[in-house]
Amino acid sequence: MSRVLIANPWATGVDEKRLEAVRAWLPGGTELRLTSASGEATEIAREVAGRVEVLYVFGGDGTYNEVLNGIDATTPLGLIPGGGASVLPRVLGIPRNAAAAARHLAGRAVARRIGLGRVNGHRFGFACGIGLDAEVVRAVDGLGRRSDGRRPNNAAFAWAGVRTLSRHGFLLEPLLDVRGHGRAAFVLVSNGPAYTYAGLVAVRPTPHASFEGGLDLFAPAEMRRRDVPRILRYVISGGDPAKARGLVHAHDADRLEVACDRPLPLHADGEDLGDVEHAVFEAERDAVTVLV
Q: Which residues touch 290 (CB under 8 Å, ≥6 apart)?
């Protein structure tokens, strides 16, 4: 068992034709392991960690997150885009086409060490949040799967964002205390320069974050209707958080602690982790090996 491919057949961009194309570019003898239930990718990653030359993963950000929570520090990961956004391989510079990504990873790719984040002990690869964006994740999950079993697309996320803000009357009061930094309406914690993507556009609330550094924090003190255009411009343009008004921020942090006034939703890499009243974010520097 020198190489293994984990594939999530329910991911947005994974189907029989794409899977066949991916396998055609991977080294001969690569063992295919299809997931069929939540958490299974974590179990497979734990099983093969330290026993394979490369672990390839064909799925979306949720599948990558599961693998990150099972893999060891040295087994190289080859992340193949198969989700709606596939943020982690995208920000690492992996080709967006699945077959092209497989060809690259099996050919000229080189190993890179990157750090991860942890929230209450759960690893995340690129983004974690409490409040607004976690509410949006939950709202999209509440829509259920499409007729083909796949998650709704980016348009559904955008519409869910508008509906969530509307439900709050476009007013988000400070409900969280970021210990040592200040009060905030919601919290975004990044492990890399892009938090997510809106189509072709990177959403960059923490543009100075890097996979070689610690964690970066973006947390508006409050958000009213008039603030929405300004905050949207900021996260799209990748502004300097030190110069932004009404913003609680941190750069290259090893540890961040957040206390909520009431239970609020938490997500990691777009996966709903339930409601929390307290969260500890920790940087796990130099944590895993990825192929780029």
A: 76, 77, 78, 79, 92, 111, 112, 114
